[in-house]
Amino acid sequence: MPLSPSELQAATKAIGNAQRILMVPHANVDADGLSSALACYSVFTQLGKDCTVICPDTLPESLDFLPNFKHLTQSISSDQQFVITLDTSGGMELDTLRYTVEENKVNIIVTPKKGTLKEKDISFLSTGSSFDLLVVVDSAELSLLGSFYTDNIDLFSTTPILNIDHHISNTRFGQLTLIDPTAASATEVLYSWFMTEPKWKEMVTADIATLLLTGLITDTRSFQNPNTTPRSLEVAANLLDLGARQQEIIQHIYKTKPLSTLKIWGRALNRIQMDPDARIVWSSVSREDLTEMGATSKETAGLLDELISTIPDADVHVLFTEIEEGGFKASMRSSVTVDVNRAAGRLFGGGGHARAAGFKVKQYGNFQLKVVECIQQLKTEMQSQRHEADSPERALPVPMRTGEAQKQAIKPDATTGETASVEMKKTESVTTDIVSKLAKP
Ligand SMILES: [Mn+2]
Predict the structure, then answer these.
(1) How far apart are CA 212 and CA 163, in angstroms?
(2) pLDDT value at position 101?
(3) Residues having C-beta closer than 5 Å to ion ligand 1
(4) What is the pTM of this model?
Protein backbone atom coordinates (compact mmCIF):
# COMPACT_ATOMS: atom_id res chain seq x y z
CA MET A 1 0.00 0.00 0.00
CA PRO A 2 1.68 3.18 -1.13
CA LEU A 3 0.17 5.48 1.50
CA SER A 4 0.72 4.08 4.97
CA PRO A 5 -2.10 4.27 7.54
CA SER A 6 0.22 6.16 9.89
CA GLU A 7 1.01 8.78 7.24
CA LEU A 8 -2.69 9.18 6.50
CA GLN A 9 -3.55 9.51 10.18
CA ALA A 10 -0.79 12.04 10.77
CA ALA A 11 -1.97 14.14 7.84
CA THR A 12 -5.59 14.05 8.99
CA LYS A 13 -4.54 14.99 12.51
CA ALA A 14 -2.49 17.90 11.23
CA ILE A 15 -5.50 19.26 9.36
CA GLY A 16 -7.66 18.78 12.46
CA ASN A 17 -5.23 20.76 14.60
CA ALA A 18 -4.58 23.53 12.10
CA GLN A 19 -6.69 26.66 11.93
CA ARG A 20 -5.13 28.66 9.09
CA ILE A 21 -4.05 26.51 6.18
CA LEU A 22 -2.28 27.56 3.01
CA MET A 23 -2.50 25.41 -0.15
CA VAL A 24 -0.02 25.82 -2.98
CA PRO A 25 0.81 23.93 -6.22
CA HIS A 26 3.97 24.25 -8.33
CA ALA A 27 4.71 27.27 -10.52
CA ASN A 28 3.96 26.95 -14.23
CA VAL A 29 0.85 25.52 -12.77
CA ASP A 30 -1.07 22.76 -14.50
CA ALA A 31 -4.56 21.38 -14.11
CA ASP A 32 -3.56 18.63 -11.66
CA GLY A 33 -1.74 21.07 -9.38
CA LEU A 34 -4.48 23.65 -9.39
CA SER A 35 -7.29 21.10 -8.99
CA SER A 36 -5.46 19.48 -6.07
CA ALA A 37 -5.02 22.80 -4.29
CA LEU A 38 -8.66 23.74 -4.91
CA ALA A 39 -9.93 20.32 -3.78
CA CYS A 40 -8.01 20.70 -0.48
CA TYR A 41 -9.40 24.21 -0.16
CA SER A 42 -12.94 22.94 -0.69
CA VAL A 43 -12.71 20.13 1.85
CA PHE A 44 -10.80 22.01 4.54
CA THR A 45 -13.13 25.00 4.29
CA GLN A 46 -16.04 22.66 5.00
CA LEU A 47 -14.14 21.54 8.09
CA GLY A 48 -14.29 25.13 9.30
CA LYS A 49 -10.67 25.96 8.51
CA ASP A 50 -9.48 29.37 7.42
CA CYS A 51 -7.99 28.50 4.04
CA THR A 52 -5.89 30.37 1.53
CA VAL A 53 -5.28 28.84 -1.88
CA ILE A 54 -2.42 30.10 -4.00
CA CYS A 55 -1.90 30.09 -7.74
CA PRO A 56 1.81 30.90 -8.05
CA ASP A 57 1.38 32.19 -11.63
CA THR A 58 -0.89 34.40 -13.62
CA LEU A 59 -4.28 32.72 -13.36
CA PRO A 60 -4.69 30.27 -16.26
CA GLU A 61 -7.88 31.44 -17.96
CA SER A 62 -8.39 28.06 -19.57
CA LEU A 63 -8.98 26.57 -16.12
CA ASP A 64 -11.44 29.15 -14.87
CA PHE A 65 -14.21 26.54 -15.05
CA LEU A 66 -12.72 24.79 -12.01
CA PRO A 67 -14.99 25.04 -8.96
CA ASN A 68 -13.75 27.65 -6.47
CA PHE A 69 -11.37 29.13 -9.06
CA LYS A 70 -12.40 32.61 -7.87
CA HIS A 71 -10.86 31.92 -4.48
CA LEU A 72 -7.37 31.61 -5.92
CA THR A 73 -4.99 34.30 -4.85
CA GLN A 74 -1.52 35.04 -6.15
CA SER A 75 0.26 36.31 -3.08
CA ILE A 76 -0.03 36.46 0.68
CA SER A 77 0.76 38.96 3.32
CA SER A 78 3.01 36.72 5.34
CA ASP A 79 2.98 39.26 8.17
CA GLN A 80 2.15 38.71 11.75
CA GLN A 81 -1.46 38.32 12.85
CA PHE A 82 -2.54 39.67 16.18
CA VAL A 83 -5.70 38.14 17.62
CA ILE A 84 -7.75 39.80 20.36
CA THR A 85 -10.04 37.28 22.03
CA LEU A 86 -13.10 38.10 24.14
CA ASP A 87 -14.11 35.36 26.55
CA THR A 88 -17.91 35.20 26.56
CA SER A 89 -18.23 32.35 29.08
CA GLY A 90 -19.30 34.90 31.75
CA GLY A 91 -22.57 35.41 29.85
CA MET A 92 -21.63 38.45 27.77
CA GLU A 93 -23.44 38.63 24.45
CA LEU A 94 -21.98 40.77 21.72
CA ASP A 95 -24.02 43.49 20.05
CA THR A 96 -21.56 45.41 17.88
CA LEU A 97 -17.87 45.49 17.21
CA ARG A 98 -16.41 48.55 15.53
CA TYR A 99 -13.27 50.62 15.45
CA THR A 100 -12.35 54.27 15.29
CA VAL A 101 -9.06 55.75 14.20
CA GLU A 102 -7.49 58.66 16.07
CA GLU A 103 -4.12 60.12 15.46
CA ASN A 104 -1.62 57.31 16.28
CA LYS A 105 -4.39 55.17 17.77
CA VAL A 106 -6.95 52.60 16.70
CA ASN A 107 -9.78 52.05 19.21
CA ILE A 108 -11.66 48.77 19.06
CA ILE A 109 -15.11 49.34 20.49
CA VAL A 110 -17.09 46.43 21.82
CA THR A 111 -20.72 46.97 22.79
CA PRO A 112 -22.30 44.08 24.72
CA LYS A 113 -25.96 43.29 24.17
CA LYS A 114 -26.16 41.44 27.47
CA GLY A 115 -23.81 41.24 30.45
CA THR A 116 -20.63 43.23 30.87
CA LEU A 117 -17.14 42.85 29.54
CA LYS A 118 -14.30 42.89 32.05
CA GLU A 119 -10.60 43.31 31.50
CA LYS A 120 -9.96 39.72 32.52
CA ASP A 121 -12.19 38.50 29.66
CA ILE A 122 -9.78 39.90 27.09
CA SER A 123 -6.75 37.98 25.92
CA PHE A 124 -4.20 38.43 23.14
CA LEU A 125 -2.42 36.10 20.82
CA SER A 126 0.29 37.00 18.44
CA THR A 127 1.13 34.49 15.75
CA GLY A 128 4.56 34.55 14.16
CA SER A 129 3.19 33.35 10.87
CA SER A 130 -0.18 33.87 9.31
CA PHE A 131 -0.51 30.13 8.73
CA ASP A 132 -0.10 27.10 10.90
CA LEU A 133 0.09 24.52 8.11
CA LEU A 134 1.29 24.63 4.51
CA VAL A 135 -0.09 22.04 2.11
CA VAL A 136 2.14 21.71 -0.96
CA VAL A 137 0.58 19.69 -3.77
CA ASP A 138 1.87 18.06 -6.97
CA SER A 139 5.40 19.40 -6.45
CA ALA A 140 8.47 17.19 -6.37
CA GLU A 141 10.49 19.84 -4.57
CA LEU A 142 9.99 23.22 -2.94
CA SER A 143 12.02 25.11 -5.54
CA LEU A 144 9.33 24.19 -8.09
CA LEU A 145 7.03 26.63 -6.31
CA GLY A 146 9.14 29.31 -7.99
CA SER A 147 9.11 32.86 -6.71
CA PHE A 148 6.28 32.11 -4.29
CA TYR A 149 8.79 29.95 -2.43
CA THR A 150 11.77 32.30 -2.70
CA ASP A 151 9.65 35.30 -1.67
CA ASN A 152 8.35 33.47 1.41
CA ILE A 153 11.30 31.35 2.52
CA ASP A 154 10.72 32.37 6.15
CA LEU A 155 7.20 31.08 6.05
CA PHE A 156 8.35 27.75 4.59
CA SER A 157 11.10 27.35 7.16
CA THR A 158 8.95 28.16 10.18
CA THR A 159 5.65 26.47 9.31
CA PRO A 160 4.97 22.71 9.16
CA ILE A 161 4.55 21.41 5.62
CA LEU A 162 2.32 18.62 4.37
CA ASN A 163 3.76 17.36 1.07
CA ILE A 164 1.15 15.64 -1.15
CA ASP A 165 2.48 14.30 -4.43
CA HIS A 166 2.75 11.50 -6.97
CA HIS A 167 6.13 12.25 -8.57
CA ILE A 168 8.72 9.55 -8.12
CA SER A 169 11.35 12.28 -7.95
CA ASN A 170 9.74 13.83 -4.84
CA THR A 171 12.47 14.82 -2.37
CA ARG A 172 10.15 14.08 0.59
CA PHE A 173 10.48 17.61 1.95
CA GLY A 174 8.25 18.67 4.81
CA GLN A 175 7.30 17.22 8.17
CA LEU A 176 4.34 15.28 6.79
CA THR A 177 4.15 13.42 3.50
CA LEU A 178 1.49 11.71 1.43
CA ILE A 179 3.46 10.54 -1.59
CA ASP A 180 2.28 7.79 -3.88
CA PRO A 181 4.39 7.39 -7.04
CA THR A 182 1.96 4.77 -8.34
CA ALA A 183 -0.87 7.32 -8.42
CA ALA A 184 -1.55 8.83 -11.83
CA SER A 185 -2.18 12.30 -10.45
CA ALA A 186 -1.92 14.27 -7.23
CA THR A 187 -5.71 14.30 -7.18
CA GLU A 188 -5.67 10.48 -7.12
CA VAL A 189 -3.57 10.68 -3.94
CA LEU A 190 -6.07 13.14 -2.48
CA TYR A 191 -8.97 10.88 -3.41
CA SER A 192 -7.38 7.97 -1.49
CA TRP A 193 -6.88 10.22 1.51
CA PHE A 194 -10.33 11.78 1.51
CA MET A 195 -11.97 8.35 1.21
CA THR A 196 -10.21 6.99 4.31
CA GLU A 197 -11.92 9.55 6.53
CA PRO A 198 -15.64 8.74 6.90
CA LYS A 199 -16.50 12.36 7.73
CA TRP A 200 -14.50 13.76 4.82
CA LYS A 201 -15.92 11.22 2.41
CA GLU A 202 -19.33 12.80 2.97
CA MET A 203 -17.90 16.18 2.02
CA VAL A 204 -16.82 15.16 -1.47
CA THR A 205 -19.42 17.09 -3.43
CA ALA A 206 -19.91 17.01 -7.20
CA ASP A 207 -17.67 20.10 -7.38
CA ILE A 208 -14.86 18.40 -5.48
CA ALA A 209 -15.29 15.23 -7.55
CA THR A 210 -14.97 17.42 -10.66
CA LEU A 211 -11.72 18.88 -9.33
CA LEU A 212 -10.31 15.45 -8.55
CA LEU A 213 -11.31 14.06 -11.94
CA THR A 214 -9.76 17.06 -13.73
CA GLY A 215 -6.32 16.20 -12.32
CA LEU A 216 -6.75 12.56 -13.23
CA ILE A 217 -7.89 13.28 -16.78
CA THR A 218 -5.17 15.81 -17.54
CA ASP A 219 -2.24 13.91 -16.01
CA THR A 220 -3.20 10.74 -17.90
CA ARG A 221 -4.10 12.68 -21.08
CA SER A 222 -7.62 11.28 -20.89
CA PHE A 223 -6.37 7.86 -19.81
CA GLN A 224 -4.16 7.54 -22.87
CA ASN A 225 -0.82 7.54 -21.04
CA PRO A 226 0.66 4.35 -19.59
CA ASN A 227 0.52 5.84 -16.09
CA THR A 228 -3.18 4.94 -16.25
CA THR A 229 -3.62 2.03 -13.86
CA PRO A 230 -6.68 -0.11 -13.06
CA ARG A 231 -6.79 1.94 -9.88
CA SER A 232 -6.96 5.27 -11.77
CA LEU A 233 -9.88 3.97 -13.82
CA GLU A 234 -11.60 2.79 -10.68
CA VAL A 235 -11.09 6.18 -9.04
CA ALA A 236 -12.44 7.90 -12.17
CA ALA A 237 -15.53 5.68 -12.12
CA ASN A 238 -16.15 6.46 -8.45
CA LEU A 239 -15.73 10.18 -9.10
CA LEU A 240 -18.32 10.02 -11.86
CA ASP A 241 -20.64 8.34 -9.36
CA LEU A 242 -20.02 11.22 -7.00
CA GLY A 243 -21.19 13.63 -9.69
CA ALA A 244 -17.93 14.67 -11.38
CA ARG A 245 -18.77 16.57 -14.57
CA GLN A 246 -16.56 14.77 -17.08
CA GLN A 247 -17.99 16.44 -20.18
CA GLU A 248 -17.40 19.87 -18.72
CA ILE A 249 -13.75 18.97 -18.08
CA ILE A 250 -13.21 17.55 -21.59
CA GLN A 251 -14.91 20.55 -23.14
CA HIS A 252 -12.72 23.05 -21.31
CA ILE A 253 -9.43 21.19 -21.40
CA TYR A 254 -9.41 19.63 -24.84
CA LYS A 255 -11.95 21.43 -26.93
CA THR A 256 -11.34 25.03 -26.08
CA LYS A 257 -8.16 26.64 -27.29
CA PRO A 258 -7.54 30.29 -28.07
CA LEU A 259 -7.10 31.05 -31.74
CA SER A 260 -3.48 32.09 -31.15
CA THR A 261 -2.75 28.67 -29.65
CA LEU A 262 -4.34 26.84 -32.57
CA LYS A 263 -2.35 28.96 -35.00
CA ILE A 264 0.98 28.39 -33.29
CA TRP A 265 0.30 24.66 -32.99
CA GLY A 266 -0.62 24.58 -36.66
CA ARG A 267 2.64 26.29 -37.54
CA ALA A 268 4.68 23.83 -35.46
CA LEU A 269 2.86 20.75 -36.77
CA ASN A 270 3.33 22.01 -40.29
CA ARG A 271 7.03 22.20 -39.65
CA ILE A 272 7.54 18.71 -38.21
CA GLN A 273 10.72 17.08 -39.37
CA MET A 274 11.76 13.53 -39.02
CA ASP A 275 14.79 11.38 -39.50
CA PRO A 276 13.37 7.86 -39.84
CA ASP A 277 16.79 6.18 -39.65
CA ALA A 278 17.81 7.99 -36.49
CA ARG A 279 14.20 7.73 -35.19
CA ILE A 280 14.07 11.37 -34.11
CA VAL A 281 11.17 13.81 -34.68
CA TRP A 282 11.38 17.53 -34.05
CA SER A 283 9.74 20.86 -34.65
CA SER A 284 10.41 24.45 -33.75
CA VAL A 285 8.65 27.68 -32.91
CA SER A 286 10.58 30.88 -33.49
CA ARG A 287 10.08 34.29 -31.98
CA GLU A 288 8.79 35.52 -35.35
CA ASP A 289 6.19 32.71 -35.35
CA LEU A 290 4.99 33.80 -31.93
CA THR A 291 4.74 37.45 -32.95
CA GLU A 292 3.02 36.60 -36.20
CA MET A 293 0.41 34.41 -34.49
CA GLY A 294 0.00 36.71 -31.50
CA ALA A 295 0.97 33.84 -29.20
CA THR A 296 3.27 33.49 -26.20
CA SER A 297 5.86 30.74 -25.75
CA LYS A 298 3.71 29.34 -22.90
CA GLU A 299 1.06 28.43 -25.46
CA THR A 300 3.34 25.69 -26.78
CA ALA A 301 2.65 23.68 -23.60
CA GLY A 302 1.03 20.45 -24.70
CA LEU A 303 2.41 20.75 -28.20
CA LEU A 304 5.05 18.10 -27.59
CA ASP A 305 2.27 15.64 -26.68
CA GLU A 306 0.64 16.51 -29.98
CA LEU A 307 3.91 15.90 -31.80
CA ILE A 308 4.20 12.49 -30.16
CA SER A 309 0.67 11.46 -31.01
CA THR A 310 1.11 12.71 -34.58
CA ILE A 311 4.26 10.65 -35.17
CA PRO A 312 4.52 8.11 -32.36
CA ASP A 313 7.01 5.87 -34.09
CA ALA A 314 10.26 7.50 -32.97
CA ASP A 315 12.66 7.25 -30.06
CA VAL A 316 13.13 10.95 -29.40
CA HIS A 317 10.74 13.87 -29.88
CA VAL A 318 12.03 17.40 -29.47
CA LEU A 319 10.32 20.77 -29.53
CA PHE A 320 12.46 23.90 -29.79
CA THR A 321 10.79 27.12 -28.69
CA GLU A 322 12.33 30.58 -28.66
CA ILE A 323 11.39 32.32 -25.45
CA GLU A 324 10.54 35.92 -24.69
CA GLU A 325 13.37 36.34 -22.16
CA GLY A 326 15.91 35.50 -24.88
CA GLY A 327 17.37 32.23 -26.12
CA PHE A 328 15.40 29.07 -26.72
CA LYS A 329 14.32 26.04 -24.77
CA ALA A 330 14.17 22.48 -25.98
CA SER A 331 11.85 19.90 -24.45
CA MET A 332 12.50 16.24 -25.17
CA ARG A 333 10.73 12.98 -24.60
CA SER A 334 12.07 9.56 -25.33
CA SER A 335 11.23 5.91 -25.54
CA VAL A 336 13.01 3.52 -23.20
CA THR A 337 15.90 3.08 -25.64
CA VAL A 338 17.25 6.60 -25.10
CA ASP A 339 18.07 8.47 -21.91
CA VAL A 340 17.36 12.11 -22.75
CA ASN A 341 18.39 13.27 -19.30
CA ARG A 342 21.89 12.03 -20.04
CA ALA A 343 21.81 13.51 -23.51
CA ALA A 344 20.67 16.92 -22.27
CA GLY A 345 23.29 16.94 -19.53
CA ARG A 346 26.20 15.77 -21.64
CA LEU A 347 25.52 17.95 -24.64
CA PHE A 348 23.83 21.09 -23.40
CA GLY A 349 24.12 21.28 -19.60
CA GLY A 350 20.41 20.60 -19.23
CA GLY A 351 18.69 17.75 -17.46
CA GLY A 352 15.47 16.29 -16.17
CA HIS A 353 14.57 12.64 -16.23
CA ALA A 354 15.44 9.64 -18.35
CA ARG A 355 12.25 9.85 -20.43
CA ALA A 356 11.73 13.63 -20.30
CA ALA A 357 14.37 16.29 -20.18
CA GLY A 358 15.15 19.70 -21.51
CA PHE A 359 17.81 22.31 -21.99
CA LYS A 360 18.19 25.96 -22.77
CA VAL A 361 20.49 27.71 -25.22
CA LYS A 362 21.15 31.39 -24.71
CA GLN A 363 23.74 32.32 -27.33
CA TYR A 364 23.39 31.52 -31.01
CA GLY A 365 23.26 33.23 -34.36
CA ASN A 366 20.50 31.77 -36.47
CA PHE A 367 17.77 29.83 -34.65
CA GLN A 368 16.99 27.35 -37.43
CA LEU A 369 20.67 26.60 -38.02
CA LYS A 370 21.19 26.07 -34.32
CA VAL A 371 18.23 23.67 -34.25
CA VAL A 372 19.81 21.60 -37.04
CA GLU A 373 23.08 21.57 -35.13
CA CYS A 374 21.36 20.39 -31.92
CA ILE A 375 19.61 17.60 -33.83
CA GLN A 376 22.95 16.46 -35.26
CA GLN A 377 24.46 16.33 -31.77
CA LEU A 378 21.44 14.43 -30.44
CA LYS A 379 21.67 11.88 -33.25
CA THR A 380 25.31 11.19 -32.44
CA GLU A 381 24.48 10.84 -28.76
CA MET A 382 21.55 8.50 -29.51
CA GLN A 383 23.86 6.38 -31.58
CA SER A 384 26.42 6.09 -28.84
CA GLN A 385 23.74 5.24 -26.27
CA ARG A 386 22.43 2.48 -28.54
CA HIS A 387 25.95 1.25 -28.96
CA GLU A 388 26.39 1.04 -25.19
CA ALA A 389 23.06 -0.75 -24.90
CA ASP A 390 24.24 -3.38 -27.34
CA SER A 391 27.32 -4.21 -25.32
CA PRO A 392 26.68 -7.15 -22.96
CA GLU A 393 27.94 -5.57 -19.73
CA ARG A 394 25.30 -2.89 -19.88
CA ALA A 395 23.22 -2.35 -16.76
CA LEU A 396 19.74 -3.81 -16.87
CA PRO A 397 17.19 -1.48 -18.44
CA VAL A 398 13.87 -0.88 -16.74
CA PRO A 399 11.54 -3.46 -18.28
CA MET A 400 8.56 -1.93 -19.94
CA ARG A 401 6.17 -2.43 -22.77
CA THR A 402 7.43 -1.46 -26.16
CA GLY A 403 6.03 0.94 -28.71
CA GLU A 404 4.11 4.07 -27.95
CA ALA A 405 2.92 2.72 -24.61
CA GLN A 406 6.43 2.86 -23.20
CA LYS A 407 6.49 6.63 -23.16
CA GLN A 408 5.98 7.88 -19.67
CA ALA A 409 3.49 10.53 -18.84
CA ILE A 410 5.87 13.33 -18.51
CA LYS A 411 5.71 17.03 -18.40
CA PRO A 412 8.41 19.42 -19.48
CA ASP A 413 11.03 19.15 -16.83
CA ALA A 414 11.96 21.26 -13.89
CA THR A 415 15.54 21.97 -14.86
CA THR A 416 14.49 24.09 -17.78
CA GLY A 417 12.24 26.06 -15.49
CA GLU A 418 9.14 24.64 -17.05
CA THR A 419 6.42 22.66 -15.35
CA ALA A 420 7.10 19.76 -13.07
CA SER A 421 8.60 16.41 -13.39
CA VAL A 422 8.33 12.85 -14.39
CA GLU A 423 5.24 10.97 -13.48
CA MET A 424 6.28 7.39 -13.62
CA LYS A 425 3.66 4.80 -13.12
CA LYS A 426 3.58 1.06 -13.05
CA THR A 427 2.95 -0.56 -16.37
CA GLU A 428 3.86 -4.06 -15.24
CA SER A 429 4.35 -5.64 -11.87
CA VAL A 430 8.10 -5.74 -12.35
CA THR A 431 8.15 -1.98 -12.96
CA THR A 432 6.17 -1.45 -9.79
CA ASP A 433 8.94 -3.07 -7.75
CA ILE A 434 11.48 -0.67 -9.15
CA VAL A 435 9.17 2.24 -8.61
CA SER A 436 8.60 1.36 -4.97
CA LYS A 437 12.31 0.78 -4.42
CA LEU A 438 13.15 4.13 -5.92
CA ALA A 439 10.43 5.76 -3.90
CA LYS A 440 12.23 4.99 -0.65
CA PRO A 441 14.12 8.04 0.61
MN1 LIG B 1 0.49 15.89 -11.38
Answers:
(1) 17
(2) 86
(3) 32, 138, 185-186, 219
(4) 0.66
